[in-house]
Design a protein that fits this description.
alpha+beta; single chain; five-stranded antiparallel sheet; about 45% helix; Beta-Lactamase; about 25% strand; 5 domains
Length: about 675
């Protein structure tokens, strides 16, 4: 029992001294020493002979001496091991501190226990800052799973080293690609992982370069594929021609199926194209042309023909000028060739259609001018030459305004003929109030239709202007319009046009305020003129009265003949207080009218009823009714006088007046 306690104490002491790795050897050495000590203790108690006792003592002494020698050697070994460990630790520390790549000692919880300057500098931290962080905190969010899976594998004992790439985050938040290589440090006795030693290399520049290269390759391959292009390369040293995957797929073959024989491609060319292509190939090989270029048909693997555009160039020749290396591209131009064929057919059809159109435009009775998108004249038929006074030879290529200048008949403003805006829907503009102004300043009324020309992509291509000489028709229109709005005898506004004007004026008063005066004028003693002189005399007298009313009123005032010997006046130029004065002057002018028929003088007079036109005066027919009633009152008062109507007319008076003098609106 005492021996067991002593053994444990010595082992503990050796462990405390750091024997660790040589623990079992130390135990063996102690066992030998203990055996020697036991012999030395027990021998004197045994009853042995002198010779045996002497021999045992000698053996015990020898064992003790050997034990002491081994102890000395073992102690020396411990000291040497400590020195080597210290040296190794120093070398590791210096290697870690001076390393150009990052090194970090990481706990199983992901915390950075120690980091070298290179790793801290790579991420823009100080050593103290980065050693206060964990690896998940400095890892890009999208790459957290990589480190997490590695740590799980370490803890479960499935790996002893690791190697992967992932992104870290610098202190300023920018990502940086790094390559990690590390080892798991384990307990020697239990094998339990203690910590990790990682080497972290900045590979951000390489990853960015790889990304740029990959992007460039993607663009290149996409461009080739999208353009229907392939690449071929001839190298006589390597035994022939190689073709890109895009090119062989173009002809229905598998990648590499056509590689090899440099002359095989010639056998795949359409018989009608072989001679021409062979000559172009020979000319370039002979150095007669700077490059090879040809369009031809090649047979697809399934038998149909594919149009190819082949461009190539020799890039290396031997001393005698023989071809060594050449490179080129092949483009599938089948769709282009088919489009060209269709275009040729369409062009022929278009030429026929253009000729028919040209004959039609030349023979039509309307004037036609066509322009391009820049507003320059591209066509002009003989009728247009005649109307504009410009020869077609002088007109073609000129800006439209040089030949054709149209203005609005009423405003005199030029009628612009321009392209529609991007937001404006193309439409035909019809204008029947246009006037064509020629170079010599002569004018003619025209009716024009302007139509934009749009292509199938809704792009503006020009204008077509179709116009006619509309002078006679316009004059007739004016005559008809004037007749529709004026009294045929006196030339004054007639009943219907006057009522429209009256209604518009009432609406304006309601909208903008203001006041005007309305006069209902009825001639006195006019029937006697008709009875004695006939209707011819009456018509002549009515014309004189109409002229008298025009001269007695201002230019803004409106005069109309309502029918028979009844006239209407709207005073717009005089204030309300001047209404009776203006009415009196009209009566005086008519009374003083000097009129004779067949040598017989005739004298007439006039009675006038006044009514205001205001926002609160009611509708037009109500105003007219009040003025009519006032005129009736003037006649009843002895004729030849002015009577102003009240703002409101009683229902009895209305009934009476309407019975004798129907309201103007009702009569119309």
């Amino acid at each position: 029992m005492q021996l067991r306690v002593g053994w444990d104490r010595i082992v503990a002491w050796l462990n405390w001294k750091g024997l660790g790795a040589d623990r079992y050897a130390a135990r063996g050495l102690l066992a030998v020493g203990l055996v020697a000590a036991a012999v030395a203790i027990l021998l004197p108690r045994l009853e042995l002979g002198a010779d045996a006792l002497k021999l045992c003592l000698e053996i015990s002494a020898a064992i003790t001496a050997a034990t002491l020698s081994l102890s000395a050697l073992f102690i020396h070994r411990i000291v040497d091991d400590r020195r080597q460990i210290a040296e190794s630790e120093q070398r590791f520390r210096r290697a870690m501190e001076d390393s150009a790549i990052g090194v970090a000692i990481v706990g199983l919880d992901g915390r950075i226990q120690q980091a070298n300057p290179a790793f801290a500098a790579m991420l823009g931290y100080s050593r103290a800052e980065i050693e206060a962080l964990t690896f998940p905190q400095i890892t890009h969010p999208d790459d957290l799973s990589i480190g997490h899976e590695t740590m799980l594998s370490v803890k479960e004992g499935r790996i002893s080293s690791y190697h992967f790439e992932k992104r870290y985050l610098r202190k300023d938040g920018t990502p940086v690609w790094a390559q990690l290589a590390g080892s798991v440090i384990r307990d020697e006795d239990t094998g339990k992982p203690l910590y990790l030693v990682s080497q972290i290399e900045d590979v951000d520049a390489r990853k960015q370069a790889e990304a740029r290269i990959a992007e460039a390759e993607t663009r290149w391959n996409f461009a080739l594929s999208g353009a229907g292009q392939g690449v071929w390369s001839l190298d006589m040293r390597k035994g022939g021609t190689t073709y890109s995957e895009t090119w062989v797929e173009m002809l229905g073959y598998a990648d590499g199926e056509l590689d090899g024989d440099p002359d095989r491609w010639l056998t795949m060319i359409h018989p009608d194209d072989q001679e021409r292509v062979a000559e172009a190939d020979r000319a370039h090989l002979a150095g007669e042309t700077p490059f090879f270029e040809a369009e031809f048909r090649m047979r697809h693997k399934d038998g149909h023909w594919v149009w190819i555009l082949d461009r190539g160039k020799a890039i290396e020749r031997d001393a005698e000028g023989r071809l060594i290396r050449a490179i080129g591209s092949l483009t599938d131009i089948t769709e282009r060739k088919e489009a060209e064929a269709r275009l040729m057919v369409s062009a022929a059809m278009l030429a026929d259609e253009k000729e028919r159109l040209n004959v039609t435009l030349q023979s039509t009775g309307d004037a036609v001018i066509c322009t391009d998108a820049a507003n320059r004249i591209t066509f002009m038929n003989p009728v247009a030459e005649n109307l504009t006074g410009v020869d077609v030879g002088d007109a073609l290529g000129k800006v439209l305004g040089h030949v054709y200048w149209a203005v609005d008949e009423e405003s005199g403003q030029r009628i612009g003929l321009t392209r529609p805006s991007a937001s404006e829907r193309p439409r035909c503009d019809h204008n029947t109030r246009a006037v064509l102004v020629r170079r010599d300043d002569t004018r003619c009324s025209i009716r024009q239709v302007v139509s934009p020309i749009m292509n199938d992509r809704d792009e503006f291509c020009g204008l077509v202007i179709v116009f006619q000489d509309f002078t006679d028709a316009r004059a007739l229109q004016r005559q008809l319009a004037h007749a529709a709005a004026h009294d045929a005898l006196t030339g004054l506004a007639n009943r219907s046009s006057f009522i429209r004007t009256m209604e518009e004026l009432v609406d304006l008063c309601r909208l903008n305020g203001g006041e005007h005066q309305f006069m209902f004028v009825d001639l006195d003693h006019f029937k006697a003129v008709n009875d004695t002189g006939g209707h011819a005399a009456g018509d002549a007298l009515l014309k004189r009265v109409a002229d008298t009313l025009r001269y007695a009123l201002g230019p803004e005032d409106i005069v109309a003949r309502l029918g028979g010997d009844e006239f209407a006046v709207i005073l717009r130029s005089a204030a309300a207080a001047r209404g009776p004065i203006a009415a009196r002057s009209i009566i005086d002018a008519i009374c003083n009218l000097d009129f004779s028929w067949d040598g017989r003088p005739h004298s007439i007079g006039a009675s006038i009823g006044l009514a205001p036109i205001r926002a609160d005066s009611g509708e037009a027919d109500e105003i007219i009714a009040r003025a009519d009633a006032a005129c009736y009152a003037a006649k009843a008062a002895g004729r030849g006088c002015v009577s102003a109507a009240p703002d409101e007319v009683s229902s009895d008076e209305n009934s009476k007046d309407r019975a004798t003098h129907p309201p103007l609106a009702a009569a119309s």
